[in-house]
Amino acid sequence: MSNGYNGTSIGYNGMSNGYKGMSNGYNGKSIGYNGMSNGYKGMSNGYNCKSIGYKGMSNEYNGKSIGYNGMSNGYKGMSNGYDGKSNRYNGMSNGYNGMYNGYNGKSNGYNGESNGYKGMSNGYNGKSIVYNGMSNGYNGKSNGYNGKTNGYNDKTNGYNGKSIG
Prior knowledge:
The chain is largely without helices or strands. It has no helix or strand. The termini are close together.
């Protein structure tokens, strides 16, 4: 709870951590944010959360140019399940900007080299930075992420970010 995403070298690292929960579409068996090649598996899409913005196929994260764009955006909107009030994914201060952007892979958060979220096939490469935050966390309303200050405090997936680096 004190660190949230450490991201020193791998960010969401964890062989058996990742996002857990069927309703969220995050399958955390040995996938989730593995930091090597897996990433969000989910039920059928990347983020399969009913009416969540990140849909894997349609809004796939290409890791090319936008991704964590914005100074204080974070996850926006209720339908997206991410409430970007003060929590945001970032390496420095950027957050998810909108539904159509996708994750930038080279200079911003999600990614290690150039992959970033690719829907169902690629996922997080995570070699260097990925979620490098000091006080970031999911503050979502629909997908069960409730991280006020740090880490995941998930009520729906039963994902507790205490042990995630």
